[in-house]
């Protein structure tokens, strides 16, 4: 049991210090003067991150609604 706990702890803690940006993206964004590309990339990341949450939330709502109507 202790070994499983240590494996789970190690695997979750190994993701704490990860950096998601590639070296080329970081170099381009840090060297730009106007910072418009950085804002565009940040907006794109938020857009790409929001879509799966909206889809899963809609699916969850549909299942919840279906489950409650069948129960009544």
Q: How do the helices and strands line up, and which of them pair or pack?
A:
Elements: H1 2-13, H2 23-31, H3 36-71
Write a structural description.
The protein is mostly helical and 72 residues long. Helix content is 79%, strand content 0%. It has three helices and no strands. The protein has helices at 2-13, 23-31, 36-71. The protein is flat and about 60 Å long.
Q: What are its keywords?
A:
72 residues; mainly alpha; 79% helix; flat
Largest sheet: none
| Average pLDDT rating | 76
| Low-confidence spans | none
Order of helices and strands: HHH
- Sum up the overall morphology in one term: flat
Q: Work out the strand percent.
A: under 5%
Radius of gyration: 21 Å
In percent, how helical is the residue content? over 70%
SS-based structural class? mainly alpha
Give a short summary of the structure:
With 72 residues, the protein is mainly α. It has three helices and no strands.
